[in-house]
Amino acid sequence: PGSGRVFSGIQPTGVPHIGNYLGALENWVALQNQYPSVLYSIVDLHSITQPQDPNQLRNNILDMAASLLACGINPEKAILFQQSQVPEHAELSWILCCLTSMPRLRQLPQWKMKSKQKNEGCVGLFTYPVLQAADILLYKSTNVPVGEDQVQHLDLAQDLARIFNNKYGDLFPQPHALLSSIKRVKSLHDPSAKMSKSDPHVMATISIADTPDDIALKIRRAVTDFTSEVTFNPKTRPGVSNLVTIHAAMASISVEEALLQAEGLDTGAYKTLVSEAVIQKLTPIREELHRLRSDRAHLEALLAQGNRRARELAAPVLAEVRHRVGF
Ligand code: ADP
Ligand code: NA
């Protein structure tokens, strides 16, 4: 920390859940105070690798902007912008696509998994890791907070920086992964699975917009096991351990400290304690989110300003790329 440029992106998929918050966004807020230059992008170009309803997508983009601001992203400290409004992303992506071999993309685990699930993914789903590389390199970013599942994609960005530099002369610095102490939050309904917005079960996820009543109900219903004591062992007791993880993260205490507070409580009583910690942490976020969502014009103006600032950084880099390529 202290020098360098941070870049990260999140897809506009509606209001985040507490897994997104604890696994990514809370860290984003910390990083904006640690690095002199920070960019956070709502990556709508990535989101259309899956079918999207246009009006829903427009709403989701604004909801994600409101959510990021409510979680503490400060537009004075981080440039918050919408990827599609900086067309340089798509152009650099095309140029990098022409430096990427088919086998290099075919071997990526996400493609293997997603194309198998969908039987046939679109071409965009195949090349989106190159767009990710373009997102990062366009700002000559040096530090990229990523989840474990994205490490191979950052490897590709590193390779493409090297390939471009070798072919056209030094331009891009090597981007490094920032793997913060990642807190994996599990589904409240099935603690063997991660908490995910694609989980159809209504009790599985807690959104940052959930009311205190919603939160208390979901935690009360959270699946645990038949042992009433509170202990921490994610392998043998994933349900109760997930509650301990959530409690510790929300109250900003260690797992040991959370277990100390759980001493003498059965899981039922402990759930009340966990609810209180979650409600206390999320209440100001939910209130701010509610306030921001009610003022669409303000959100649009904030995003427009972020888009302009991002584009000011991107344009000279892309101009240099075009020149080197021979355009
Ligand atoms: P989802 O799995 O709900 O579709 P995304 O894949 O859009 O979420 O992830 C957005 C960010 O949130 C990523 O940085 C990802 O690593 C993080 N994240 C998603 N789910 C969790 C989880 N259950 N626990 C911790 N972090 C998570
Ligand atoms: Na996902």
Automatic annotation (TrEMBL):
It catalyses: tRNA(Trp) + L-tryptophan + ATP = L-tryptophyl-tRNA(Trp) + AMP + diphosphate + H(+). GO terms for molecular function: ATP binding; tryptophan-tRNA ligase activity. Its EC number is 6.1.1.2. Coiled coil: none annotated. Pfam families: tRNA-synt_1b (PF00579). The keyword Ion transport does not apply. InterPro entries: aa-tRNA-synth_I_CS, aa-tRNA-synth_Ic, Rossmann-like_a/b/a_fold, Trp-tRNA-ligase, Trp-tRNA-ligase_bac-type, Trp-tRNA_synthetase. It is found in: Mitochondrion matrix. Catalyzes the attachment of tryptophan to tRNA(Trp) in a two-step reaction: tryptophan is first activated by ATP to form Trp-AMP and then transferred to the acceptor end of tRNA(Trp). This is Tryptophan--tRNA ligase, mitochondrial. It comes from Austrofundulus limnaeus (Annual killifish). The lineage of its organism: Eukaryota, Metazoa, Chordata, Craniata, Vertebrata.
